[in-house]
Write a structure and sequence with these properties.
Layout: E1 4-11, H1 42-51, E2 56-61, H2 62-69, H3 79-86, E3 89-92, E4 104-107, H4 110-117, E5 123-127, H5 133-138, E6 144-150, E7 169-176, E8 182-188
Parallel strand pairs: 1-5, 1-6, 2-3, 2-5, 3-4
Antiparallel strand pairs: 6-8, 7-8
Length: 201
């Protein structure tokens, strides 16, 4: 069975839109594309290298797939680009348009994701693709979730984990970069538990 590892870059107020560049996603008039770049450091770079070390395939939503497909095939002579281009790309989408990036495969629904997870093969890494997270969490398909929280407030933009069902996670790894990025890695731990600090009558 494959492991699904999913990760997001987010601001302090939970915005995940267009972290990598100014033209990545300008929908809604978003003006801060590329907001992770000034805070990237050796610590964050090392962590990302660890995530993408060894063999992996990609599990993506259609919008992130289109962004990646418009970028990575144009990059040559870069080891990271070579990994992305060689990996199988599994795209969760209801659209029927052809997937032009080499080694790309369409998944029509979450049941197809579950069947893929049950096969033998390398890890499936989800990067970006925030709209598919709620369904993955609700169906218990994510094995490990990493969040990189950057020390900025963006005020508006697409938010992390929109509409996700309640679920509890436990922290299994963490580190903090010199630039103030909090890197936290979580694994699912069941249902949300509640309690009370109310005083006894």
């Amino acid at each position: 069975m494959r492991e699904i590892v999913a990760g997001l870059f987010q601001s302090l107020d939970g915005v995940i839109q267009a972290p990598g560049g100014p033209n990545e996603d300008e929908s809604g008039g978003f003006a801060f594309g590329g907001w992770v770049v000034p805070h990237f450091s050796e610590t964050t770079g090392t962590f990302i290298d660890e995530i993408f070390s060894g063999e992996f395939d990609l599990l993506l939503g259609r919008r992130t797939y289109d962004i990646f497909a418009g970028h990575w095939p144009k990059i040559t002579g870069d080891p990271f680009a070579d990994k992305f281009n060689a990996a199988a790309k599994y795209v969760l989408t209801s659209l029927s348009e052809p997937l032009a990036w080499q080694n790309s495969h369409r998944l029509e629904d979450l049941a197809a994701v579950k069947r893929l997870k049950e096969t033998e093969g390398p890890r499936l890494i989800v990067q970006g693709s925030s709209t598919i997270y709620p369904g993955l969490i609700e169906n218990g398909l994510i094995d490990r979730l990493f969040l990189l929280t950057f020390p900025i407030i963006l005020g508006s933009g697409k938010r992390a984990l929109p509409g996700a069902m309640p679920a509890a996670f436990r922290l299994v790894d963490h580190r903090v970069s010199d630039s103030g990025v909090i890197i936290a890695v979580y694994e699912p731990s069941g249902a949300v538990e509640t309690g009370s600090f109310a005083l006894q009558d």
